Amino acid sequence: MPKTSRVNDDLPRARPSRVVVELVRPLIDNGRFPAKASLGEPVVVEADVFVDGHDHIDAGLKYRPVGGTWIEMPMSPLPNDRWEGRFIPDTLGLWEFEVSGWTSGMASWMHALAAKADDGQDIVDELAVGIPLVERLRGRAKGSDQDRLDDLLAWLRTGDLVSLRSADLSDLIWRNEERQPAAKQDGKATVRVERERARFSSWYEFFPRSSVDPDHTASNLRGALDRLDRIEAMGFDVVYLPPVHPIGVTHRKGPNNTTGDHIEGPGSPWAIGGAEGGHTSVDPQLGTVADVEALAEACRQRGMDLALDIAFQCSPDHPWVREHPQWFKHRPDGSIQYAENPPKKYQDIYPLDFESEDWAGLWRGLHDVFEFWIQRNVSVFRVDNPHTKSFAFWEWVIPKLLADHPETIFLAEAFTRPQAMQRLAKAGFSQSYTYFTWRQTSVELEEYFTELSDETLDLLRPNAWPNTPDILTEQLQHGGRAAFVSRAVLAATLSPSWGIYGPAYELAEHHAVREGSEEYLDSEKYQTRVWDLDKPESLAPLLTRLNVLRHELAPLQHLRTLKFCDVDNPQLLAYTKTDPMGDAAPVLIVVNLDPEHQQSGTVWLEWADLGLPKHALYDLEDHLGGASFQWHGGRNFVELSPWGLNAHIFTATVKGCPPVRPLIRSYAAASANPESATPTSATPKSALTNKAEKGPHV
Amino acid sequence: MPKTSRVNDDLPRARPSRVVVELVRPLIDNGRFPAKASLGEPVVVEADVFVDGHDHIDAGLKYRPVGGTWIEMPMSPLPNDRWEGRFIPDTLGLWEFEVSGWTSGMASWMHALAAKADDGQDIVDELAVGIPLVERLRGRAKGSDQDRLDDLLAWLRTGDLVSLRSADLSDLIWRNEERQPAAKQDGKATVRVERERARFSSWYEFFPRSSVDPDHTASNLRGALDRLDRIEAMGFDVVYLPPVHPIGVTHRKGPNNTTGDHIEGPGSPWAIGGAEGGHTSVDPQLGTVADVEALAEACRQRGMDLALDIAFQCSPDHPWVREHPQWFKHRPDGSIQYAENPPKKYQDIYPLDFESEDWAGLWRGLHDVFEFWIQRNVSVFRVDNPHTKSFAFWEWVIPKLLADHPETIFLAEAFTRPQAMQRLAKAGFSQSYTYFTWRQTSVELEEYFTELSDETLDLLRPNAWPNTPDILTEQLQHGGRAAFVSRAVLAATLSPSWGIYGPAYELAEHHAVREGSEEYLDSEKYQTRVWDLDKPESLAPLLTRLNVLRHELAPLQHLRTLKFCDVDNPQLLAYTKTDPMGDAAPVLIVVNLDPEHQQSGTVWLEWADLGLPKHALYDLEDHLGGASFQWHGGRNFVELSPWGLNAHIFTATVKGCPPVRPLIRSYAAASANPESATPTSATPKSALTNKAEKGPHV
Fold first, then answer.
1. Tens digit of each residue's pLDDT (9 = 90 or more) over B232-277
2. Kind plus residue range of the DSSP H or E element containing B551
3. In sequence order, which residues have a C-beta less than 8 Å from that of residue B374 and are 6 or more positions away?
4. What is the ipTM, given to two decimal places?
5. Separation in Å, CA of B249 to nearest CA in chain A
6. What are the C-alpha distances in Å from A423 to residues A28, A170, A247, A362, A426?
7. Cβ(B422)–Cβ(A682) below 8 Å
8. What predicted TM-score, i.e. pTM, was given to this entire model?
9. Closest partner residue to A32 among B186, B354, B698, by Cβ?
């Protein structure tokens, strides 16, 4: 029984475009979350744009700050139906973009004309086909385009094929082609544009209560002010302090994480809250809220940022325990549930209940903690263990804070499962701690940073730390000075953002509390220390040099262009970075991962990827060691030893050869033809040569 | 200046769940298109479901035919925050499903209780914590769950830890846990359930105008009826005929694709339309519409399907050229634009203009062609070059036809770029021709079929053809009989659907029209042939055996479970398949890809993946050659020669050991804990051991 109906056959209301736009990137969860972007870096938009059959198509990228005026630019075809466009956002906040594609009768006709002329066919008919097409373009054109189309019409009418074929008309066609119907991407694509520092930053962490004075005087926030000059001179631009709030006394922990009834010592800064106040108060031992404000202001005047540590947890002495008992879970006996990971107990900490009946009050209260410190010049927050707080809370609070204060930067201290880390990045965290600390072999590093620079590039910005107050890796415990050197070079050059737990790293502190633990002996988490930072063996000169190079060599400020090189010795890691803005020379880094032995090997370079000619003499300048080399060809010998600098940071240049600019829309007519794209290995060679050429099936 | 506001702070309206549900699979383009499903195969739904912190969670999968009644089942945790559920749809048409997740206070508490008891801690307090939790469950429970929860309460009150810990309560908790708030997936997930034959089919193509009678009598549709017994006996279930319509005379092509003014011969069936009619008429030389209907009915009575070839293009003599000139593009001189791929011309073919002003009329007209033949018992359509017709048209016409006739099957004859092939699959094509024909080395085959059985599994069902009337690969031209054997074994066992251009394959026809071409010499596309199918060297017995095994060995009817084995000889390809329904023994196939030399090597088997015990004696029965072997361990020797059968199709069994059922929800309490999942290499080992264990940051 036929059920078809002429009355309601569900035909689309308007004539649909034959063009398909799909697989747009960046597009996070079909547009539910914005992708990451920053000032000073192009947003690279890609999409599959294609049409049935052999017609030529064109594609455009529209973009604007949300609520602003659309700008549109032509996209360029890449291999295999992929198209690319780029824009450089110049204001903070949310931007949006949209890819569209359309068939181009003009481009198809011009291709046919050229092919027939080349084949020696009579093209009189073909010229006649073009006239109405050009006339229609002329009807839509404005300004000088009208004159150019008039010229084109004259050539057509006089059969001036030479002028016709020598003119580059792609921009003219792109602007004036009739786009009805055009296809648009599914899903609303947004990017959140943050400060350059959200992408490119160098963090220095220290405990202000510890002393750098050999006389062992205790330090505080005013003393921290005096340390800014030195940190600035080392090239760090984010000064990060562990929590500065009053510390609880109930179940306070002693040196080396000891517990007991009569603990002496200053306690852990992460046991937040005491009689003197909570998350918006300052430990009187350290100073006052005004001291924090002054320190933040001093950082700002130096072009640096002060980062506070936000740990949303409370000591039993925190004022919220009395003021908002409903924000905590209670046991049947009425007591508040302390933190547990059964069978372990953490009685000095009360976790907050993000699903409590008063969740709204709690969420607002936590929001106000950020707001309080933002009002006092703090622009960067390192958030402690965000993966143990509700993801839904972060999805609410970060966009809300950024809407009011788009210059704020959030670093997620989440060392946890991949999905949870990515969800925090989706929720809005600007940066994330990474597994870098435990990626140590060349295979591990290449695999992990390939993932970071490709799969999760639009989502998660890594911040690479060779050490933290919680993590002294076995490698640093036993690798000696060479391990500290290579890990610093790796962190500072693989990742646009890096950081160190400063005094311990400068002095290559490597004593663990016990074998098999990654905790420091006499950790500053539980006691004060005295650091003699002027020791001659200090790593400060190397750290300074790395930060200088990170500013001088623009490719180091980006992750997108990272590529690893083949090396025939797994103890050597080699990788290149180019400048996505196209201004600076490409960089090649080679690191010896072996802290004990000299290692040598052959490094293969993909010169084309670096925008350099294939057969030339390359000047390689080592900005770390200072030496210069001349290389020829893609295959070169490298030798590094732990008793030397153990790494090269080269720039590669060819005399008289400027760096190649990144892809800019080419207006060559044929380039808009997806069939002309080079097939990848996924495309059947025979299919393209035997079938696609044979036209309709007859 | 603070801009926060208490009045409108954009808080979610209701308390949001702390659980995240994301990366649901299958979900095509965020739900814009349904995923593929079929009767007799489980729909395997996966999602990332996780929560902040250490709480235990649970997850459920709801499913129904669209408009039907929801059924919900518990999902099972896989490693790394992934959860899985399965359902087996039992009616044709669109189904929908939804994944949700929630925190389980009961499961968290039970885990804590067990951990503390194991640690020797006093659990009196912990038992008290459980009582109100169980009472709340009891308040929601129905039927026998009430009794079980009463027992549980009694154990709690009496401190009967032994009973408590020995009971499997997961199902009880899953059913009765308070799910407020629960998190649900983004995006509406649908699957289109088709006949089993959409997934598992064996196609036999022949030209009914050619003869299988040594007396060279021409054949026709009535003669085709007489061939059904033989095709059925060979085990094929889709009988596919090239276009049966009247053939144009204008610019008709002659034998071996010759062109000219005075062509003799029957012409190409793809030059559709003549004085006798178009797409709903039958070439009088072949018979009548009633003959097609009778043939289709005869197929149906045998449990087979008749497949017609739908090529939406017209010869200049097609009735539509007069009746609907607006469906074609016109040149300035008023003539209709013939097909071109400049500079090539195909003057015997007029393409249809899918963006014409009368696009709606054209689309309806093409829809009615399908409808016409569906009314005449035709249930399968092999669509010619669908990638040269508007994707938007397919997205409209196929779902519309399937809504009226859900038993219809569409095969896309698209040998083109990956994106276009995938878009056709999204639009609704049940099956797609593949690049199998040109994937010939072990690396190529493994890479391609790994992609098909994983990345594009939910989207595109492959149909593997070793030959077609258009494609006689160089391998078959020069590989001799052994190449025909191995390509048939590969197609029939790698892909659940396969097909052959029958007479030419049975007789190992291998003469190309010229060196370097994949066209047959004296191709049936342009002339009739005589095939003596009773020749003793016919491959019919092998083809028959392959089809018998495809029915007897259930794993061959699926693609999802395909896994390739390591082999130390690249000329040998080895792969396994298991039965997703869990009923049949696993299958191991080994094929010698070298048509000229004997090849031997070692095959490694992953016994655990096959659901078999690791250290046992395995009975391997070769269903192709008939021999039996006993293997022990994962590493075994294989030798195959082109003068033998050149392939093994083994089933692997262990005496007294039934095949392992696929994953069923386990109710062990700890299994709901994402932290208990095995971390993959992407998870930092140190992070999980050092950090996750240490609880809050203090």
1. 999 999 999 999 999 999 999 999 999 887 778 899 999 999 999 9
2. helix B540-552
3. B401, B405, B408
4. 0.90
5. 13
6. 11, 42, 31, 21, 5
7. no
8. 0.91
9. B186
